[in-house]
Amino acid sequence: SNFWIDGRTPQNRADRSKIQETITPIIRKRDNYTCQNCYKYGGHLEVHHIFDFSNYPELRFEESNLITLCKTCHIDFHKTYPRTSTNTLNDLEIWMNGQYIYRQLLLNLL
Fold first, then answer.
1. DSSP assignment string, 16-54
2. CA gap 89, 41 in Å, rounded
């Protein structure tokens, strides 16, 4: 099977769709429909996995592992930290030049 090429296994697809339907709206609301990097309100908001989806399946559904970014910031993050590499809290905080507000909750899960 060629699933590993982009990680689109049936399980991963199911998990992504479950996140999209159930957790994404909660995170957007929690973050006040505001990009947590540039503080732009509304517009095209995406929910980013801090510890990436592929390498940290146990954190996929954890709210503290998710952050709201506008599309522009999300693209910018992944220019520096590609989707194909392991992404971590440290990467996010270096890129944001600050501490993630829910960092302790997230670190407690590790």
1. HHHIIIIIHHHHHHHTTTB-TTT--BSSSEEEEESS-TT
2. 23
DSSP SS3 for 87: coil
Give φ, ψ of 48 to 5 degrees: -105, 135
- Rounded-to-integer distance, Cα 85 and Cα 3, Å: 17
Whole-angstrom distance, CA of residue 9 vs CA of residue 87? 20
Backbone angles phi, psi at 80, to 5 degrees: -85, -40
Chain mean position to CA 12: 15
Give the span between the Cα atoms of 61 and 57, in whole angstroms.
8
Residue 57 CA, distance from chain mean position: 12
Is this structure's pTM higher than 0.85? yes
**pLDDT tens digits, one per residue of 10-49:** 888 899 999 999 999 999 999 999 999 999 999 999 999 9
Sign of CA dihedral 62, 68, 84, 107: negative
